[in-house]
Design a protein that fits this description.
With 75 residues, the chain is an all-beta fold. 0% of the residues lie in helices and 53% in strands. A hairpin with a 2-residue loop joins β5 and β6.
């Protein structure tokens, strides 16, 4: 699958938010998942991802401060 790493120097229990994955070639495969961590990594299972291009957006909060990370990836 795809692993989203959060900073290791912060308390992962205080991280909230969502991860959005967009498939530009086929909107049917778009999905979002709530961030729920048991360590500093979030695993997006392989069965949710098709080979090819994805746009990933991680919209998360920590201690009242909002963060946004966007990237195009090839899976």
């Amino acid at each position: 699958g795809l692993i989203v790493n959060f900073p290791s120097n912060i308390d992962f229990n205080k991280i909230t938010g969502k991860v959005f994955l967009y498939r530009p070639s086929n909107k049917q495969f778009d999905f979002e998942t709530t961030i729920s961590l048991s360590n500093h990594n979030l695993l997006i299972p392989d069965k949710r991802l098709l080979d090819g291009r994805w746009n990933i957006k991680v919209d998360w909060q920590y201690n009242g401060k909002a963060y946004l990370y966007k990237k195009e990836i090839i899976y």
